[in-house]
Protein: Glucose-1-phosphate adenylyltransferase
Organism: Novosphingobium umbonatum
Amino acid sequence: MRETYGQPLARDAMAYVLAGGRGSRLKELTDNRAKPAVYFGGMSRIIDFALSNAINSGIRRIGVATQYKAHSLIRHMNRAWNFMRPERNESFDILPASQRVSETQWYEGTADAVYQNIDIIESYSPKYMVILAGDHIYKMDYELMLRQHVNSGADVTIGCLVVPQVEATGFGVMAVDDKDVITDFVEKPINPPEIPGKPGFSLASMGIYVFDTKFLFDLLREDAANPLSTHDFGNDLIPKIVKGGKAVAHRFTESCVRAADEIGEYWRDVGTLDAYFETNLDLTDTVPMLNMYDRDWRIWTDQVVAAPAKFVHDEEGRRGHAVRSLISQDCIVSGATAYRSLLFTGVKMGSFSSVTEGVILPYCNIGRGARLNRVIVDSGVRIPEGLVVGEDPELDAKRFRRTDNGVCLITKRMIQQLDL
């Protein structure tokens, strides 16, 4: 085992964010945007968490691979992440699928999305590669994972969550020995392997990998030449290393970043409407499990120049107020009520309207007298006056996208098709 001393390993690392997924389980919310570009938490986008973790960990070389419906994602990154300076040995590369290897070949898998940009990565000469998914909500110090990777002499180090065995069936799951060396890797197993000494729990992959760059490039070139490969980290590269090399699990508990009032580690995949809804509403708790107010580990994003939020009217039945809610800049709550809700930038609420458990995306306008309960409202939607959602399940299901948990997604097209 090699102990690391001296300057942080993050200075010699490049973070490579895989942000090309379709996000189809978010339904109409990803009709016009990639999943990593979906709004989150009042001001941020989902991808801001992986990027902020990299910056806060000390990594100053970042690449982001995009593919499907990437315009809003690229626009956001150009606006929010253009502060990296080459003269400080920093870089931020947006790497759309652009048929650089073949005139007919887009990114064919997560591994291929790295392989096609090997020449760009090599120009920066990173010693380590930190491969990240761009669509999860969490705070993590990648420097600690890099240290474990070097000290253990691993070919690959895989970020893992400790989850109840019954919940692990939807993940890639690691079987490990008593030193967390991975002995088997199984995708979505019916009977997930348990953690030694911790019955009833399993280690699930977070989709975070650390490699020595040279080892990774050799592996990617070999994989690209294999016509039978799906060119995917989880399906092809990781199982191969587990069988013929040394793969080590890194437990999220070892590098999770917690503010003073955060009790446990927090990681969420917001890949479904229900998960997206609940994860946003988690932020409205008095002491939220994820602290967005932590000044020591900021979540960086595009800073919109806008007026402060405003609450107006103070009459019985027409009082602008919010309880257990996050209200962003440029919002006007005019004689209306928001309860356990998130109002993103530029939301306007008309008199006598109410939102209860709502995730209202930017620049929506909620008409007078409207009542919304358990909703996600896509950006730019104008809710008609007097519209009621969340009180008649059958009617809601006919007009909007309603989940099994009773959450309604409302989009512009759905509003346009209403017969009012």
